């Protein structure tokens, strides 16, 4: 496996990998970050006791020789992590590298291989911050590369195919998984084991990809990428500290009080139902909001919208509602909004209503 940040070639160590020399094919950069798609286990029947991120990007490409028929591919090993351990510094590095590549006239699109655990968060972060209308497609796998019927090779082939499609341009960051194409804003992981693990519960997939054919059934409507004020370059290492707490039967205020004492800038609540919050936790959050901590109500349910309660609660308490964003995507948007200088509940609500 190559070191993180290295550029790879299948045949020899050069500055890039090219799986085809056809000038008519789209030029796609594949950035590998690790994950199950790059995982390996002692035997082919083991799909849970594997080590993530141990297979290098060169091996991932070599397992899909038909990539040569759909794109000229250059590849880089940006990281080799289990995505449960995704870090803010790696987000910064990845987002900046994506922007660098897309600014080049020699690159038509980017594919990112990623672990499934935090894929939806990384994809949404890039959806809000990438400054190009060229396609960016994130993909992954539920089975390690060593498994029988590993799903990674086909997902990678489909992701490169989507990234090379003219129809993907201007759609923001996409997720290609199990033949479906999802918007980064909508997609969530819905299974711990199934190869059909990613869905867009509220409004469905954008389209599909199969046997080299890419078809979109709808377009992304909300502003993204070049139409947002968010940029990783301005965030850098200065990520505002935002944490997630959960409401449940018998919840206490211990977590909220500890986070406020630690100096967090924002708290996202994974509430019950329509973002409802246990009375004890709500009191603690209201006190936190009065001290200037941004409070966003989301839901632990998995689908649906968290609507504002208006003067009855949110307006009085200074809370913001997350709409259809789950708590983890709401955290991503809140960090970016705070870093961009949006501090008041009114300004933050406008951000959540827009993006």
TrEMBL record:
Residues 27-220 form the L-asparaginase N-terminal domain. SUPFAM superfamilies: Glutaminase/Asparaginase (SSF53774). The keyword tRNA processing does not apply. Gene3D superfamilies: 3.40.50.40, L-asparaginase, N-terminal domain. This is L-asparaginase 2. InterPro entries: AsnASE_II (IPR004550), Asp/glu_Ase-like_sf (IPR036152), Asparaginase/glutaminase-like (IPR006034), Asparaginase/glutaminase_AS1 (IPR020827), Asparaginase/glutaminase_AS2 (IPR027475), Asparaginase_C (IPR040919), L-asparaginase_C (IPR027473), L-asparaginase_N (IPR027474). CDD domains: L-asparaginase_II. Substrate binds at residues 83, 116-117. The gene is ansZ. GO terms for molecular function: asparaginase activity. Keywords: Hydrolase. Belongs to the asparaginase 1 family.
């Amino acid at each position: 496996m190559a070191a993180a940040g290295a550029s790879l070639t299948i045949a020899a160590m050069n500055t890039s990998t090219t799986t085809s020399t056809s000038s008519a094919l789209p030029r796609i950069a594949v950035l590998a970050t690790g994950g199950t798609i790059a995982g390996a286990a002692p035997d082919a029947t083991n799909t849970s006791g594997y080590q993530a991120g141990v297979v290098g990007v060169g091996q991932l490409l070599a397992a899909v020789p038909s990539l040569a028929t759909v794109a000229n591919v250059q590849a880089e090993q940006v990281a080799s992590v289990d995505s449960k351990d995704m870090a803010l510094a790696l987000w910064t590095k990845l987002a900046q590298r994506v922007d660098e590549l897309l600014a080049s006239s020699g690159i038509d699109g980017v594919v990112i291989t990623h672990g499934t655990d935090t894929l939806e968060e990384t994809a949404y972060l890039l959806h809000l911050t990438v400054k190009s209308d060229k396609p960016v497609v994130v993909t992954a796998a539920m089975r390690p590369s060593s498994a029988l019927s590993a799903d990674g090779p086909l997902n990678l082939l489909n992701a490169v195919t989507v990234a090379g499609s003219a129809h993907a341009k201007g759609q923001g960051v996409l997720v290609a998984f199990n033949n479906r194409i999802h918007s980064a804003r909508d997609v969530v992981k819905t299974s711990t084991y199934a190869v059909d693990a990613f869905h867009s519960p509220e409004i469905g997939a954008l389209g599909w990809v199969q046997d080299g054919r890419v078809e979109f059934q709808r377009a992304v409507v909300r502003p993204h990428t070049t139409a947002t004020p968010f940029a990783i370059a301005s965030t850098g290492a200065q990520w505002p500290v935002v944490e997630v707490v959960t409401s449940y039967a018998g919840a206490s205020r211990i977590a909220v009080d500890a986070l406020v004492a630690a100096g967090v800038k924002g708290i996202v609540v994974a509430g019950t139902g329509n973002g409802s919050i246990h009375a004890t936790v709500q009191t603690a959050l209201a006190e936190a909001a009065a001290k200037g901590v941004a409070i966003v109500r989301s839901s632990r349910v998995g689908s649906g919208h968290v609507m504002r309660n208006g003067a009855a609660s949110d307006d009085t308490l200074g809370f913001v509602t997350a709409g259809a964003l789950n708590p983890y995507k709401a955290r991503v948007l809140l960090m970016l909004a705070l870093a961009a200088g949006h501090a008041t509940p009114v300004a933050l609500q406008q951000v959540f209503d827009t993006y």
